[in-house]
Every structure is written in structure tokens, then in C-alpha cells.
Amino acid sequence: MKRKLIILAAVLAADMLLACLCAGAAADFLAPVPVSRAQAQSAQGGLMGEEAAQGGFREAEAARGGLKEADAGQNGFEKAPGGSGEKLIALTFDDGPHPVYTKKLLDGLKERHVKASFFLIGQSIPGNEELIRQMARDGHLVGTHCYSHEDLTKMTLQEASEDIERTNEMICEISGRLPDHIRPPYGRWSDDLEAAVGMTPVFWDIDTLDWKSQDAAKVERQIYKNVGKHQVILLHDVFDTSVEAALAVIDTLAEQGYTFVTVDELLID
Question: Does 152 lie in the same domain as 126?
Fold first, then answer.
């Protein structure tokens, strides 16, 4: 009997140790991860997050959540080298598709022969399938912004992976291509998640704060004030003012020698 009690005590102790180790690993994953390794982050004094009111999605100011300015090349990619005088801009649009404003934007981009990058919310896809087909036909990059715009680092690894894969499958079924790029909600990402889903996270250099002002003139000024060579610009195609500003910026910067590309052309492995 004494021997059995000793064995039982040893088993219970081992179980408790394993539980503690698992809890520690889970805590490490769930803790917010500083986005300090992405080249396409903000170079204007720290990363400011995005916020969108469309469909109930609201984005926090990421800098206040402890996110840091990016370091080049630490996320598996870096800015593509440009020739002398080459000025490349990647316009990126989050939170769509929107049945009215995304359509207006796509038509404006086509008229100007400009390619952009779209990061879609899975919940916004039903009913807007033709817009996604148009994105693919017109040569735009179609990426994921996750299904319900939740902070991925507050989910388990399995939950976050399933959220991403669910949206990817929806996009693939419509466009015929599985997305390679992801814009993590709130700019929050982790190395474990990157390894699990095998996608390239895309951040930004210029946050237009278009969700906040919803003023086309202010959005334009924010871009002109910060624009430079080889930059990723964050916008949302769920606001008419953002679409208006984006098309005006294209017209203005094109006259100044800027070329508009998709993010995969601006970033290299």
C-alpha cells in the first residue's frame, strides 16, 4: 500500500509540472508580440494603428498597445532595392470589400491603370464575390485581413490559424488563388503564427488615419507630408472619403514620377 501511495504521488507531481509548463507556453503565445521585425512598418516615430467603423470593426492605435517601429528584414522580407530616382508606392486597402466604395475604387484604379493590394475581412465577403473576381482579373493583390477582425495574439494558435485559413479558403474559392499575404488586425502578429500559416505579414509605412478623419483632404495631406520612395500606405476601402483621397493621390503623385505597385512587388524575400 505504501508503495502504491508513493507511485501515485509521483504521478500527480508529474501531471502538475506538465500543466505548469503548458500554461507557461500558452501565456507566451497569448502575450502581445511587438511588431518590431517588419520592414513595412511606420518610420514616422512609431506605429499608429488603424481603426474602422464599417461593419462594427474598430481598430485600436497600435502604438499605445506596445508595438514598436519595425526593423528591416526581420520578418522574412525587406524592401526591394530601387534604381536611382525610382519611386514606388504600394497602396493597401483594409476591411473590404464594400459593395459601393470598393467598386468605385476598382473602377478608378482600372481607369488609371494602377494596381493596389486589398486585405479582405471574411465576414464582408458574402454578397461581394464579383468584386473579388474583379480584383483578381485586374491584377490586384488579394490578401486576408482575417475573418472577424479579432486580435490574433489573443487567440490560441489553433484558433488564429483556423480564422486565417477560413478566410483564405473563401478568397481562393472565388478568385482561384490562395492568398500569400496577410494584414494582421491591429498589426499584431507572432513568429509562431507565421510559422503555422506560412504567410507574409504586411504592415505599413504611412498610416493615413482615414478611419479617424473621414476627410479626403486630410487623408491626402497625411500622405503628401510623409511620402517617400518605396512605401506602403494604409487606407480603408470602406469609406467614400478614402476612395476619393486615394484616386486624387494617384493623380498627383503619378505626375511627380511615382509608380504604384502591389506589395509583393515592393517587398522581396
Answer: yes
- For residue 16, the enclosing domain spans 1-30
| Overall number of domains in the chain | 2
For 71-123, what is each residue's pLDDT tens digit? Answer: 333 333 455 555 546 899 999 999 999 999 999 999 999 999 999 999 999 99
Burial class from Cβ neighbours inside 10 Å (0-12, 13-18, 19+) for residue 11 reads exposed
pLDDT, position 267? 82
Counting Cα atoms < 13 Å in the Cβ hemisphere of 254 gives 14
pLDDT at 70: 35
Contacts of 17 (CB under 8 A, 6+ apart): none
**Cβ 164 vs Cβ 178: under 8 Å:** no
Q: Which of 98, 149, 230, 236 is catalytic?
A: 236
2, 85: one domain: no
Annotation marks residue 236 as catalytic: yes
**Does one domain contain both 15 and 134?**
no
Query: What pLDDT, on a 0 to 100 scale, did the predictor assign at position 85?
Result: 62
Residue 234: its H or E element:
strand 231-236
Q: Is the pTM of this model over 0.85?
A: no
Q: Which residues of the chain are under the pLDDT cut of 50?
A: 1-77, 84, 269
Q: Do the Cβ atoms of 172 and 178 come closer than 8 Å?
A: yes
- Tell me if residue 210 is catalytic: no
Looking at 94, 95, 205, 207, which residue is catalytic?
A: 94
CA separation, residue 61 to residues 140, 141, 248 (Å): 27, 25, 26
CATH classification at residue 176: 3.20.20.370
Q: What is the pLDDT of residue 16?
A: 43
